[in-house]
Amino acid sequence: MSEDLAQRKPRAAQSLRDLQELGLIDSSITPELQAVADKYAIGLTPHIIEMIRAHGPNSPIARQYIPTHEELNVNERELEDPIGDLAHSPVPGIVHRYQDRVLLNVIKTCAVYCRFCFRRETVGPGTRGLDSAQLEVALRYIRQNSQIWEVILSGGDPLTLSNRRLSALLDELGRIDHIAVARFHTRVPAVAPERITDDLISALHSGPTTYIVIHINHPDELTKRVKDAIAQLTANGVPVLSQTVLLRTINDSAETLGRLFKQLAKARVKPYYLHHPDLAIGTQHFRLSIQEGQRIFSELRQKNSGLTLPQYVLDLPGGHGKVPISSSYIETKSGSQYKIKDSRGNSHSYIDT
Ligand SMILES: *Cc1c(COP(=O)(O)O)cnc(C)c1O
Ligand code: SF4
């Protein structure tokens, strides 16, 4: 990397030209890469650019954000709406798949754009989130359905909303008696830790009990600045959990994931979900088989404290929801006689009740 580049103050990157100027892609932009950029948003925060400078353009961090021509390889099983959100969307912005909780997607912009994103067909800087009339309709849906206990703010990335909009929204949710919890699914603490400020924390306390679920995929993402941002949340009464996407060439080993989950637990973050990669279009190069995932997860179960282990889940296409897919330990069952294998693979018989 040239010296003047290293000295330049980092700024956000949003196009192939930005990446080129930063020396993160080749100097000639191929038509294939241009086609990828025309279809899917590019976005890297100054923090992520700094991280890529530290770890290199082929590092697991870089590969999550820098587009490649591989995204043009489309497999016929891949889907525009890989987890079937549309099948469960009663009004714009709401996905109501499970009885006591809804997703509320107010905004479709993110701080970064991940190359494997399961919502890659709908997120981007040019897309519009809900306008005020649509948001009112979504809030009315939540008010009128008293079985809804929790609102999950997803997107896009809900922490790209301004503090003013966040506190107004949480204030509205706080006025609904049956809403106990507002949960944020966000990448912001890991990719733009400077966004975690006292003002944001006050905004997060404007309504129901707030939880943050950080999307984080590799131990190198857990820098001192990110840990400080997390500590600011937990010290101020905002519980933090994490979700990780299992990704080929990024975190597909028990060693890498084990380090990530242990460091998270040490930083007071409970690992919550490990997602098997979804069938998003052009993401085949990131996927691995369920069998490989199960092998990695079994190794994690053997070597790592249960405190550090998330649930390994698959979100079924068609809107059928999440299911745990860590390998089954029950080998055979006949009447009340079970054969159950332990985490080393040895079988034991067990007689039920
Ligand atoms: C993943 C998801 C949730 C959250 O599920 P939990 O198991 O409660 O974390 C809620 N609604 C939808 C539509 C989802 O996809
Ligand atoms: S931050 Fe989340 S929604 Fe946004 S591009 Fe990444 S995975 Fe997709």
Classify the helix fraction into a percent range: 25-40%
Strand segment count: 12
What is the structural class? alpha/beta
Q: Report how far the terminal alpha carbons are from each other.
A: 66 Å
Overall morphology: globular
**Residue share in β-strands:** 15-25%
The CATH homologous superfamily of the largest domain is named: Aldolase class I
Ligands in the model, by name, code or SMILES, are: pyridoxal-5'-phosphate, iron/sulfur cluster
CATH architecture of the largest domain: Alpha-Beta Barrel
Strand order of the largest sheet: 1-2-3-4-5-6-7-8-9
Give the CATH class of the largest domain: Alpha Beta
Using only CA atoms, what is the Rg?
21 Å
Please indicate the count of domains. 2
CATH topology (level 3) name of the largest domain? TIM Barrel
Query: Any low-confidence stretches, pLDDT <50, length ≥5?
Result: 1-6
Q: What's the number of helices?
A: 12
Largest sheet: 9 strands, mixed
Arithmetic mean pLDDT:
95
Q: Could you provide a short overview of the structure?
A:
The protein has 353 residues and is of the alpha/beta class. It has 12 helices and 12 strands. The protein folds into 2 domains: 3-72, no CATH class; 86-323, Aldolase class I (TIM Barrel, Alpha-Beta Barrel), CATH 3.20.20.70.
Would you give an account of this structure?
- The chain has 353 residues and is α/β, with parallel strands linked by helices.
- Mean pLDDT is 95; it is low at 1-6.
- The chain is built from twelve helices and twelve strands.
- It has a nine-stranded mixed sheet.
- Strand 11 (337-341) and strand 12 (347-351) form a beta hairpin.
- The chain folds into two domains: 3-72, no CATH class; 86-323, TIM Barrel (Alpha-Beta Barrel), CATH 3.20.20.
- It has helices spanning 3-7, 16-21, 31-39, 46-55, 60-65, 132-144, 163-174, 188-191, 198-204, 224-235, 254-266, 290-303, and strands at residues 94-98, 101-105, 150-154, 181-186, 209-215, 240-245, 269-275, 311-316, 321-324, 330-334, 337-341, 347-351.
- The structure holds pyridoxal-5'-phosphate and iron/sulfur cluster.
- Pyridoxal-5'-phosphate is lined by residues 95, 97-98, 101, 103, 152, 322.
- The site of pyridoxal-5'-phosphate (PLP) has 7 residues, from strand 1 and strand 2.
